[in-house]
Write a structure and sequence with these properties.
The chain is built from 16 helices and no strands. The protein has helices at 3-14, 40-49, 52-56, 75-92, 97-106, 115-125, 132-143, 154-161, 171-194, 205-211, 215-229, 238-256, 265-281, 288-297, 299-308, 312-323.
């Protein structure tokens, strides 16, 4: 037996009957030879980890735009925290850890610069709208590897596409969706406290009493609720689910719509909209790979692909190059 075959046998022997087995994947759009060492889901994880879109996440906003401190989350650190939380629950539930990690690492590959402000800007201006979870699927299917895509398995793409809305077909995908909510609710709260936007004591007393008085305790309570109540599906007990919904509602009002935390978002949105209009006026300004998409799928599609793939700092640089006048100097 190869190492991969031994791993596949270990999955059959040890994983839950509800787990998605690597050997039973629905496969890839373009079949490839089996690997002697890695299962199909391990290969997907590695392909995502090494792709360019994954690296760009380090310079994309999570909540606070271009923070000066070193310890605020970025879209990359958010992704890693989602993967850690999801893997912890997957191991406890005897689900496929490799599939879970691959979905988690790929779930935000299509996110815009400047976080959800960038997503709103493109959604308002693009004729067909813009949704980052759909763009994440497009990144792995169409944009990476110079248009060849990553050729991921069906299960990973399904989990990526369903991480915000809809219901993934695997429990591993459903687990990532919940881990995503757990991660951003808690690390965004921690970042807001670090930024002085609010304090731990601002968290409503019933939430602190029911889930815990710090991030670690609350996360542990949520993870335990999922582990103790999931069998055949991914779920929390009703009471914990209600308290967590209260925490998310608190975060929406205290952080995600907070005028202090979001004071610069209108500038970011205006900047992306102006870049969009600039390229739409003359698509020939697009880089060659995106100009090819404009010819085959339309300029709006190509511009969305280009702008959504930008890091915060690249979008600012491009905007500065095109729209901010430079001082005259004698050559």
């Amino acid at each position: 037996m190869t190492i991969r075959e031994r791993t596949e046998q270990l999955e059959r022997d040890t994983l839950s009957p509800y787990a998605c087995l690597s050997a039973e994947t629905k496969g890839r759009d373009t079949p490839i030879p089996s690997d002697g060492i890695r299962t199909e889901f391990q290969r997907d994880r590695d392909r995502i980890l090494h792709c360019k879109a994954f690296r760009r996440l380090m310079h994309k906003t999570q909540v606070f735009l271009s923070p000066e401190g070193d310890h605020y989350r970025t879209r990359l650190t958010h992704t890693l925290e989602v993967a850690q939380i999801a893997r912890t629950m997957a191991v406890a539930l005897q689900l496929n850890e490799n599939l879970t990690e691959a979905i988690a690492l790929g779930h935000d590959l299509g996110h815009t610069p400047f976080g959800h402000a960038g997503e709103r800007a493109l959604d308002e201006i693009a004729p067909e709208g813009f949704r980052h979870y759909e763009q994440s699927v497009r990144v792995v299917e169409r944009l990476e590897r110079d248009g060849a895509g990553l050729n991921l398995t069906w299960e990973v793409r399904d989990g990526i596409g369903a991480h915000t809305t809809g219901l993934a077909c695997t429990l591993e995908g459903r687990l990532v969706k919940l881990a995503d909510h757990f991660a951003y609710a808690h690390h965004d709260l921690e970042d807001a406290i670090r930024a002085g936007v609010l304090s731990e004591e601002d968290v409503p007393a019933p939430i602190r009493e029911e889930l815990g008085k710090d991030r670690e305790t609350r996360l542990t309570a949520l993870i335990n609720s999922v582990i103790e109540n999931s069998s055949g599906d991914i779920q929390m007990d009703g009471h914990t689910e209600e308290v967590f919904a209260d925490l998310e509602a608190f975060m929406f009002g205290a952080v995600y719509t907070n005028p202090v935390a979001k004071s610069q978002e209108h500038k970011a949105m205006a900047m992306l909209k102006q870049l969009y209009a600039f390229f739409l006026e003359d698509p020939n300004r697009l880089p060659p790979e995106y100009l090819a998409i404009a010819f085959s799928e339309g300029a709006d599609r190509a511009i969305c692909d280009y702008i959504s793939g930008m890091s915060d700092r690249y979008a600012i640089k491009l905007y500065t190059d095109y729209f901010v006048p430079k001082g005259w100097s004698r050559e």
